[in-house]
Amino acid sequence: MAFVAPEHASIGVWRFSRSDAILVTLAGLHGLALAASPTVPVIAAGMWWNANTIAHNFIHKPFFRSRGLNRAFSAVLTLLLGIPQTLWRDRHLAHHAGAEWRLRVSRQLCFETMLVFTLMALLATLHPRFFLLVYLPGYLGGLLLCAMQGYWEHPAGAPTSHYGRLYNFFWFNDGYHAEHHAHPAAHWSGLPRCKARDAKASRWPPLLRWLDVRPLELLERLVLRWPGLQRFVLRCHRRAFQRLIPEVETISSATIVGGGLFPRTALILRELLPGVRLTIVDADARNLETAQTFLGDGIEYRNERYTSDGPLDCDLTVIPLCLSGDREAIYRQPPSRVVLIHDWIWRRRGSGTVVSPVLLKRLNMVRR
Question: For the chain, what is the domain count?
Fold first, then answer.
């Protein structure tokens, strides 16, 4: 269902392809929808959809041969979205170039800015209740949806594609986002032909892409953003480790599995066991980079996936709650002399202690 069409040379009024007539027609339908049902969801969803289909494609490949028609259509999109399209275009092309955006004043930008201010002034003056309770919430909601779209199209800064047929039919191949960054001058109808084998891809469209991240990892990322949560998490885990470590004989080396994102375990063990040789094993290199900002040097960082199929060369192993692997195998055959396993609060194994009732988490200790 993805659009695949030949790219044409200039045909009639169209600069690149007759298929752009579909987008121009849909821009008109967007305007009719706003006139017929000016509600918060219609304003927000229309802004988000148009910005990522019609306006986005027009930014890269202006539809018309005539400069006058392109300027007129840019003004139409400005009124539909409430954002000067010349400004939107400059910011977006700077994003593609990896350059810092700088404001460039032009007659077209001044004209479009005047259109936006005039539109909002008229709405605020003639229909103040509608402006405050409907238009503004819808407008801000649309901006939020666009920001979320932009973030999840580039998780961790890497352009990410989605090849779902339904999404690419209704969003005019916007799912081919890695390909779009590799070929920003390609017409939207030709992006499926640019599909790259090594492109980063997700099975989810952008606004659902958070489902790629496991819930526990989402919580970890939340902790990473809030120093107050970091202090709470460190306090809870420090207390649990302090209760269990005195029961263990001398520990000279420890391996922490999946401890890169917010390296609480490494921070605590370095404090409680001065001189211990620490190794962090994490399959995500970006997590290890994050850990290094907290821990610095003096720790071995191993970018690999942990498997529970053999012993580790260390005295202590710490297993995370969000382990991607066989937790029961670790309980049956501990990979080191002592293993501390984060688990749900109701799963008591070996000796252990509660980390926090709020986190529904406990720390179990098993020995080999």
Answer: 2
Rounded Cα gap, residues 62 and 69, in angstroms? 10
pLDDT tens per residue, range 121-167? 999 999 999 999 999 999 999 999 999 999 999 987 789 999 999 99
Domain region containing 104: 20-211
Residue showing tokens 């352009």: 159
Does some domain include residue 5?
Answer: no
Judgement on whether residues 78 and 102 belong to the same structural domain of the protein: yes
CA atoms within 13 A on the CB side of 354: 7
- HSE-up of 183 (CA within 13 Å, CB side)? 15
CA nearest to 257, candidates 201, 195, 334, 155: 334
Cβ neighbourhood burial of 298 (10 Å; 0-12, 13-18, 19+): exposed
Beta-carbon contacts of 359 under 8 Å, excluding residues fewer than 6 positions away, are: 233, 236, 345
Query: 354 - beta bridge partners?
Result: 362
Q: Provide CB contacts within 8 A for 364, sequence distance 6+.
A: 331, 340, 341, 342, 343, 347, 348, 349, 350, 351, 352
Select from 176, 211, 246 the last residue of a domain: 211
Domain ends where: 169, 196, 211? 211
Tokens coding 146 = 């666009």
Q: What is the pLDDT of residues 217-236, one digit of tens each?
A: 767 777 777 888 888 989 99
In a shared domain, residues 251 and 183 = no
Both tokens assigned to 206: 């952008």
- Kindly report the pTM of this predicted structure: 0.64
* 291: CATH: 3.40.50.150
* Tokens 């779009």 sit on residue: 180
**99 class by beta-carbon count within 10 Å (0-12 exposed, 13-18 middle, 19+ buried):** exposed
Residues listed for the chain: 368
In a domain? residue 170: yes
Which residues, in sequence order, are bridge partners of residue 21? Answer: none
Q: Is residue 6 part of a domain?
A: no
- For residue 237, what are the contacts with CB-CB under 8 A and spacing of at least 6? 264, 265, 268, 355, 363
Whether 224 and 207 map to the same domain: the answer is no
